[in-house]
TrEMBL record:
GO terms for molecular function: guanyl-nucleotide exchange factor activity; small GTPase binding. Residues 782-951, 1127-1278 form the RUN domain. The gene is dennd5b. Belongs to the RAB6IP1 family. Its main location: membrane. This is DENN domain-containing protein 5B-like. Keywords: Guanine-nucleotide releasing factor, Membrane, Repeat. Residues 137-178, 404-427, 677-701 are annotated as: Disordered. It is found in: Membrane. Residues 33-592 form the UDENN domain. SUPFAM superfamilies: Lipase/lipooxygenase domain (PLAT/LH2 domain), RUN domain-like. It holds the Pfam family dDENN. Residues 677-690 have a biased composition (Polar residues).
Length: 1283
């Protein structure tokens, strides 16, 4: 057993793990491949038949067990393919990847060629199939279409099979006749390797194929070359290059060092060439944001090149979800996965994109590689500095002679157009491909090289040659060979062949393009470490509490970023790949750093050395990559200086003549020599020893650390948080396994829902958020918008899971429309029944009852699911189904009805059963209940996610004026008016019809409501009006605002005001069932009326002023878009005006016996009158000039307020003076003037705060802190005053 132990000992360091041959099994014959979607309409040569793994060497490798089904499926994703001598039969190359459930990857490289079928049984079977096919199609002129597809996945499979290639149709009905035609079948040679050395494997396999098709036998039996690559070629060490020998030419590969970007051998230049720079950057952005990405191409290698190219560029992040660059036909049901994925789907020639029915498209990025165009999801944030980034990438491509402008402009779902065709481009690509597939590609054929080596190495022949030269005779054949070799040597620089030169160019282009991407992340995340929250004392406690932990201070990180980066970054830091990156960073304090993180950290440290900038001084200016030349030189030097040459292929100890050479046929290899490796190989012995040493070290340290199994379990759980099933299991497609996979999806969706709702709540709700690392109990609007957008994506994915038949781009909107149509039918049936006539008569008989009912009815109507749908349908601003679904979710969330609406939608079980398969999430009762419960928890907080996004729509508002009825002045003879203002504008002045206390009006979205101006023209006998409050309701979102008043409007009563500016507060519904939503009359004690006189103490007054100034300062420290209303802070209930009113009222001699009430404004007016008189008499001439100027400014402002055309009362005038003084930074200058004025002694007690110099100086100091901020006043406050 020494051989097998050598195999296992060396495997981690072996270049290749397995050599595999796939093809037709002559014993089982032709087996139709049902899983690949059998289509009997097609001619037999175009149908899919099952392929088999014919042989694989060695039998097994301990750490990479051979997965026969997966390898067979990916070597021949379409199954066997047949051709005749009339068809093109060029060999094809493609690669694949197998991702295990733990995320580790194995690469496969496949060379597919056509081999003549020698089995008479298979030829006659094909002949029989053709006769049956011709008979069927001869009898029925019109081929019967396959039964209508019941599932969107079935229709996808059939749409892929519909189009026959032109070659098949041109052969006509009699496509194959065994007496006339030669039948060929595909066969695949495959190398399975631990690392993606794509170019080396491609060259080795093509040389192996050349050895089979050559006219002469290869120098050694094929077993020697296969054995050599399996057991004698090691993986290159990091930072080193390796040379090993194929059948005819040496092959060189290199591996990046530990400090460099990891190995990526797929040609990035080709990926950019296929899509164009802008398109590739857009697909890359979708990948970063973890959307669903579907690649679409006829060519498997193109699918792999683009998929690997994009995931390679993610450094230092890694794709964390389903990754299947080549999706075999038998796995089409996997497109139903309600998780982020990156998959590649093979297109059939001539299949139109419009025929491709995909299960879900709301969050899909569709990449049509062959036609160079992409479709992007809606609401898609752009990558930061995209224009400059594209410019830099284009310059790198141009420096290598590649055009950067290919690819059609990207399209979003809202603008479907015809697929752009680029025939010239296609021809160029075909020509390039032909050049690439040419076996020689400008090199001498292997046999010729061998002949020349033989001639040059033979002394006798060399002497003969010298003699012929002297006598003037030339040996033409030898001269031609030598010229060819010389030409080959001079073709590249430094004696490299054209193929090697091309490979070097590719490697240099690859690394330079990757460096540009890596440089962007180094710039964007240079200071990420400052925001990582290290909260656990050890690894075990961190792993056990991972789900509850808050690992990254997102709010602070975003507040530190340049404004243009925020739309992208706010989405990106919510992704699984970013969470895993941060997890790796935290775990690196206890265990070895993850390789990508190690490289990234080293780059950040290096950048800090060269670029010493303060972390907070961020700029959005673009920083170009500075190490392009350096990185390319490193690669070139490695390829120039070969560090290691592997053992040459040699004769093996095996029976001669078993695998006899027969041109065009791949022989059966001898398994006994290929299943075991050499026992005396120094290199394999060395790695086995190293492995044993590692094992010993692990056993010693095991008892010091956590038990390894337990730790691994924790690690897997920690890393899979919020992540659904990572990979489909390719090897087992039984119904039980598919059901289990779907069950995992259901569990994953529920977990994701729980985490998203929790995150939304924590971000919104005060103290808990502060404890978990938010700087204060407030979520930024940007962060909130990102979280809601990701909730919309989750709901779309849940509604797309297990659909029977897909209708439209949005599964949720489609379900809502079905529900709405059903409800409308029921309503119609009820309307036709006579019972309704009675209720309408009742309302006619009792009009007063009708008025009371109207508010309740509108409230109830506004809350129905159909009402919300109808409203969304009327919004002309939204053009797509996906947009409508998102608007519906936002509106329901703002109305606190999302859970209730979805429960209502899913209560129609007949409809749900009709639309969804049994395994769908929406048909799993227990999970559905939990999901609705998680959504219900969002009702605990207030969202304005509809109002703040759809700012231009028209909204109906309802205004109700509530007078204080007990004082008989519920009505007035004057003509009242109202003006409603919000954060986005105002309604303008609207006359209220006489003796009507309720009105509705339509107006462009006002945003959150801030103020209501209420007044009247003082006409008639009863021109006094005592108003308790004004209620305003947004009829779409259901938000109701209460504007307290509690004062009189009228001349000669209260402060003589004919109009008041009222400040609003949002009314919360008292219970879920409270359909009135706060529309009832509020309790009286909440009105801030003039009668309220609970005198605060001097300490309380001073504390209130400090608090309100502090709140205003905080307001300005928030990002501009997230500040809310400044008016509330200046004039609301606990505002600057209220606090200063209390200060001025302290010790004020206002209530005189048998005299009218005196107001603070009276004191201000008297003080100004005194100053004006003193000024006229010259008393103020002696004062310093600044003081004189301040006097003049105070007088000017007070006179302007008094002479305004508005009929505001004395308290209103004082409010206006405070607001204007705060705006123009004059309050601290005016206070000393009022204090010095002799009028103060008549109007204030000696104990008044205003007469205490120390207190007044402290107040001035506090008010001066507002000078740093630009206070702007709402138009409703300063209307009619021009200062």
């Amino acid at each position: 057993m020494s051989g097998s132990s050598a195999v296992s000992g060396a495997a981690p360091c072996r270049f290749a793990h397995y050599f595999v041959i796939c093809g037709i099994d002559t014993e089982t014959g032709l087996e139709p491949d049902e899983l690949a979607g059998e289509n009997f309409e097609q001619s037999p040569l175009r149908r899919t038949f099952k392929s088999k793994v014919l042989a694989h060497y060695p039998e097994n490798v301990e750490w990479n067990p051979f997965d026969q089904d997966a390898v067979n499926m990916l070597c021949m994703p379409k199954g066997l393919s047949f051709r005749t001598q009339a068809d093109p039969r060029e060999p094809q190359f493609h690669s694949f990847i197998i991702t295990k459930e733990d995320g580790s990857r194995t690469y496969g490289f496949v060379h597919t060629f056509y081999e003549e079928v020698t089995s008479a049984q298979i030829c006659s079977a094909m002949q029989t199939l053709y006769q049956m096919h011709n008979a069927e199609h001869g009898s029925a002129n019109a081929p019967s279409s396959s039964s209508s597809s019941s599932s969107s996945m079935d229709s996808l499979a059939s749409s892929l099979d519909e189009a026959d290639s032109p070659a098949s149709s041109s052969r006509g009905a009699g496509g194959y006749d065994s007496s006339r035609d030669t039948l060929y079948v595909s066969k695949a040679l495959c190398l399975i390797t631990p690392m993606p050395f794509m170019h080396a494997c491609r060259r080795f396999l093509s040389q192996l194929h050349r050895a089979v098709t050559g006219t002469t036998a290869p120098p050694l039996p094929l077993e020697s070359y296969v054995h050599n690559i399996l057991y004698e070629v090691p993986l290159p060490a990091p930072g080193r290059s390796l040379k090993f020998h194929g059948v005819y030419e040496p092959i060189v590969c290199q591996r990046p060092g530990l400090g460099e970007l990891p190995l990526a051998d797929f040609p990035l230049g080709e990926a950019f060439n296929l899509l164009g720079v802008e398109n590739l950057v857009q697909v890359f952005t979708c990948t970063l944001l973890e959307m669903q990405i579907l690649l679409y191409s006829q060519d498997y290698q193109r699918l792999m090149t683009v998929a690997e190219g994009i995931t390679t560029l993610l450094f230092p992040f890694q794709w964390q979800h389903v990754y299947v660059p080549i999706l075999p036909a038998s796995l089409l049901h996997f497109l139903d996965a309600p998780v982020p994925y990156l998959m590649g789907l093979q297109s059939k020639e001539g299949t139109d994109r419009s025929k491709l029915e995909l299960p879900q498209e709301a969050n899909l990025c569709f990449v049509d590689i062959d036609n160079h165009y992409i479709e992007l999801p809606e609401d898609f944030p752009q990558f930061p500095n995209k224009t400059e980034f594209i410019q830099e990438l284009s310059e790198v491509l141009l420096s290598f002679g590649l055009s950067a402008n290919t690819g059609a402009p990207p399209r979003t779902r809202s603008s479907p157009g015809s697929t752009p065709s680029t025939p010239g481009r296609e021809r160029k690509a075909v020509a390039l491909r032909e050049l690439e597939d040419d076996g020689r590609n400008g090199n001498l054929a292997g046999e010729e090289l061998a002949v020349l080596e033989l001639l040059q190495g033979n002394a006798t022949l060399e002497r003969l040659q010298a003699l012929t030269k002297r006598t003037g005779v030339t040996v033409a054949r030898v001269e031609a060979l030598r010229a060819g070799v010389k030409c080959q040597g001079t073709e590249g620089q430094g004696g490299r062949t054209a193929a090697e030169e091309d490979e070097l160019k590719n490697a240099k282009l690859n690394v330079q393009l990757r460096e540009v991407f890596a440089s962007r992340f180094t710039t964007m995340f240079a200071d990420f470490e400052a925001f990582v929250i290290q909260s656990a004392p050890d690894l075990e406690s961190w792993l056990t509490n991972r789900e509850q932990m808050h690992n990254f201070d997102k709010a602070s990180f975003l507040s530190d970023q340049p404004e243009p980066y925020l739309p992208f970054l706010s989405h990106f830091i919510e992704t699984q790949m970013f969470a895993t990156f941060i997890d790796n960073k935290i775990m690196s304090q206890w265990e070895e750093k993850e390789p990508l993180l190690r490289v990234f950290d080293a780059r950040i440290d290096k950048a800090r050395l060269y670029n010493v900038r303060a972390p907070n001084l961020r700029s959005s200016s673009y920083q170009r990559c500075s190490i392009l030349k350096e990185s390319a030189q490193t690669i070139e030097q490695r390829l120039m200086k070969i560090d290691h040459t592997a053992i040459h292929p040699h004769l093996l100890d095996m029976k001669i003549g078993q695998g006899k050479y027969e041109q065009g046929f791949f022989p059966k290899l001898q398994a006994d020599v290929l299943n075991t490796g050499p026992t005396n190989n120094k290199w394999s012995h060395r790695t086995a020893t190293a492995q044993r040493r590692k094992d010993r070290h692990r056993q010693q340290t095991e008892h010091l650390t956590l038990d390894n199994d337990l730790k691994e379990k924790y690690m897997q759980e920690a890393r899979s948080l919020g992540k659904s099933l990572r990979q489909p299991k390719l090897s087992d497609l039984s119904p039980a396994v598919i059901a289990q996979t779907n069950w995992k999806f259901v569990e994953g969706l529920l977990k994701e829902c729980r985490m998203k709702t929790k995150r939304m709540l924590v971000a919104k709700m005060g103290r808990e958020a502060v404890e978990l690392g938010h700087s204060e109990a407030n979520i930024t609007g940007l962060e909130e918008n990102t979280l809601i957008a990701s909730l919309c994506d989750l709901l779309e994915r849940i509604w797309s899971h297990g659909l029977q038949v897909k209708q439209g781009k949005s599964a949720l909107w489609s379900h809502l429309l079905h529900y709405q149509a059903r409800e409308e039918r029921l309503e119609q049936q009820q309307a036709e029944s006579p019972g309704d006539l009675l209720s309408s008569h009742l309302i006619e008989i009792i009009p007063s009852l009708a008025r009371c009912v109207s508010l309740t009815i509108t409230t109830i109507n506004c809350q129905t699911l159909s009402f919300v749908c109808r409203h969304i349908q009327m919004m002309s601003e939204i053009k797509t189904d996906v947009g409508r679904a998102r608007a519906w979710i936002r509106l329901s969330l703002e109305k606190k009805l999302l859970s209730q609406h979805l429960k209502q939608l899913l209560s129609r079980q007949v409809l749900t059963k009709k639309l969804y398969k049994r395994y769908a999430f929406l048909r799993c009762e227990e999970e559905k209940e939990q999901f609705l419960f998680h959504l219900l928890s969002l009702n605990a907080v207030d969202y304005f996610c509809f109002t703040s996004v759809f700012t231009t729509i028209m909204i109906p508002y309802r205004v109700v004026i509530i007078p204080i009825k007990k004082l008989s002045n519920a009505m007035t003879t004057s003509n009242p008016w109202v003006c409603v203002s919000g954060e986005l504008g105002d309604s303008g002045i609207m006359q209220i019809p006489k003796n009507v206390l309720e009105m509705t009006f339509d107006c462009q979205n006002l945003g959150k409501l801030t103020t209501v101006q209420l007044g009247h023209d003082n006409a008639g006998l009863l021109a006094k009006w005592l108003v308790d409050c004004v209620m305003v309701r947004n009829e779409i979102t259901g938000h109701t605002y209460r504007f307290p008043c509690g004062r009189w409007l009228g001349k000669g009563v209260d402060d003589g005001s004919l109009e008041r500016v009222l400040i609003g507060e949002l009314v919360l519904p008292s219970t879920e069932e409270d359909s009135g939503r706060g529309c009832r009359t509020p309790p009286l004690q909440r009105s801030p009326s003039q009668i309220r006189r609970i005198k605060p103490t001097s300490a309380q007054i001073q504390e209130a002023i400090g608090e309100v100034v502090n709140t205003i300062v905080k307001h300005f420290h928030k990002p501009e878009k997230e500040r809310g209303s400044l008016t509330v802070l200046l004039c609301g209930e606990n505002s600057l005006v209220t606090a200063l009113e209390q200060f001025f009222h302290h010790g004020f001699r206002s209530a005189r016996l048998f005299q009218k009430t005196v107001f603070v404004w009276d004191f201000v007016e008297k003080a100004v009158a005194y100053m004006e008189t003193a000024d006229q008499m010259g008393d103020l001439q002696e004062t310093t000039e600044p003081l004189g100027m301040t006097c003049q400014s105070l007088c000017r402002y007070v006179n302007a307020i008094n002479s305004t055309s508005r009929s505001i009362g004395k308290d209103g005038k004082f409010q206006l003076l405070v607001c204007l003084g705060a705006r123009d930074r004059l309050l601290p200058q005016w206070l000393p003037l009022l204090v010095e004025c002799p009028v103060i002694q008549q109007m204030y007690e000696d104990t008044a705060l205003l007469r205490d110099r120390t207190t007044v100086n402290a107040l001035i100091g506090v008010l001066e802190t507002l000078h740093d901020f630009p206070i702007t006043l709402e138009a409703s406050l300063v209307k009619g005053i021009d200062l």
